[in-house]
Amino acid sequence: MYIKSLNTSRSGVGVGVLGEAMYAMGGYDGRSCLKTVERYDPLVDVWSLVAPTNITRSFPGMRVLVILKGLAFVQMLSYYSMLI
């Protein structure tokens, strides 16, 4: 199955799935580490930018800790951030 490319090319990206969406967080674009987060909607085959992480990170590990009122709190290595 083919899906559309991310808006920002990156290596060392953290990827996770929450519900129907896939998230790509951080990574390295060839010049610098990123704090951008993109969400993929498979129903319309579109990547959208969502709220960035607090700090730049390459090769982040991530896990969903809790979902509260539509917000997903995730842990990236040793700090917490929030996806909206």
Total domains = 1
Global structural class: mainly beta
- Fraction in beta strands: over 45%
Low-confidence stretches: 77-84
Query: Span from first to last CA?
Result: 27 Å
Spatially, the strands of the biggest sheet line up as 1-2-3-4
Question: What summary fits the major beta sheet?
Answer: 4 strands, antiparallel
Mean pLDDT, to the nearest integer, reads 76
Number of strands: 7
Helix share, percent: under 10%
Number of helices: 0
* Backbone CA Rg: 12 Å
Q: Please trace the helix and strand order, writing H or E for each element.
A: EEEEEEE
Shape: globular
What does this structure look like?
It contains no helices and seven strands. Strand 1 (14-18) and strand 2 form a beta hairpin. The protein has one domain (14-83). It is mainly β and 84 residues long. The chain has strands spanning 14-18, 21-25, 37-41, 46-50, 62-68, 71-76, 79-83. It has a four-stranded antiparallel β-sheet with strand order 1-2-3-4, with no helix packed on it. The chain has a three-stranded antiparallel β-sheet with strand order 5-6-7, with no helix packed on it.
Keywords:
84 residues, mainly beta, 4-stranded antiparallel β-sheet, 3-stranded antiparallel β-sheet
